[in-house]
Amino acid sequence: xKKHEINPAHTETRFLAENGFLTALAPLLGAERDxxxxxxxxxxxxxxxxxxxxxxAAALRDxxxxxxxxxxxxCAAGFCIDASAASPADFSLGKSPLHAAGLYYLQEPxxxxxxxxxxxxxxxxxxxxxxxxxxxxxxxxxxxxxxxxLVANETVPGRAAIVAExxxxxxxxxxxITSETPARLAARWPGFFDRVLVDAPCSGEGMFRRLLAxxxxxxxxxxQVAGCALRxxxxxxAAALxxxxxxxxxxxxxxxxxxxxxxVIAHFLQSHSDFELAALPVVPGWAPGLGxxxxxxxxxxxxxxxxxxEGHFLALLQRRPTTETPPPTRRALSAGRPGRAAQRAWETFxxxxxxxxxxxxxxxxxxxxxxxxxxxxxxxxxxxxxPGWWLGExxxxxxxxxxxxxxxxTQADFQRTLDLEPDDPAVMAYLHGEALTAPGAxxxxxxxxxxxxxxWGKRSGGTVKNHYPxxxxxxxxxxx
Length: 480
Fold this sequence. Notes:
Structural class: alpha+beta
Radius of gyration: 24 Å
Helix content: 25-40%
Mean pLDDT: 90
């Protein structure tokens, strides 16, 4: 077979060659083209990232034995799953009770590099500008240790709801979830954030191996790439306005071409003299930038033939410090202070069901009660899914606790719990929405798996009524 002739048996590679994708990449790959093409005959890398808000990475690894896990070099909480050493049963990880308890997030390893490079610190003000589906937002929340302010924004409301679901399961208590355009946020909060992440919508070339039969591959074209690049430039321009002097900005994509990567950053630097590239950590396997940023610091490419992961691009930028005073950002609360009835309902619920009332500022929107992160933000007039940690709904004189409240607490925070082993049939029965039988004191309790909360139950007469959210319930037979 001649050099670069595609083996007809490799249908994935043949498809990519026929639509011009591999031809467009050839100048970037050079002598590495054969090695790159060979990855499309291999299975994609599977990874998971441990929720260090709830347990240490080693502790989860012990719980997943005998699953074959290998550390991700650039993420201390990340693991690659060795598919060759695992059984088919190992790959139901997304349906595991430990996943439902928020102990890990299934994420391919290259994507774990993005939040690590942004490196948010506890107590900072951080914005994930293009957050869906929320994997990188959960990573940021863990690195921030639930301290400070995390704003996770997604323009499309339906996708923003998925971000909310993932952060809820993660136990994030300091996040605000919005669904706005970057331009509207920039007009409202200029110069407010210490760190901004732009994980930009892109043509997704780096995911073609993983997304089998996905529409992204069918829709790929040079015209689509050009359209993505224009959109990315607009998003970056808004991100620049949101960042404070001295702040850090990370731009990332999961695509390979120059137009959406180096050329976007080069254009941004030409039009933003107050920004510069900052040095990235040296990681084995990460390749340098190409084209207009060849040899420049602060740029990295993750190729699937060089690392155990899919394709990614990273650029680390810093806004130069200035002595100028940025425009003031109003920090008024858009949600109202709770009324007396809501305050009493919350206090009564905490006294009856929790060891102590979680400290923080309460907000009320309609019948819903939240805890606001610090510092607070002016959210009036913006599309906001969650103005903070959702605590529950006030119904007359009582509080119906939220799933987010249960997942944001530890087993030690509840007065009553029902702790089940992961292989106990009652766990899957609970996740299916079935009532459980367990003697004990009446009232709200946390149903836990291996000491980690899964959700709420309410016990009466030895029967625990199921309050696991209907939209999250597992379908099929529970085998109780």
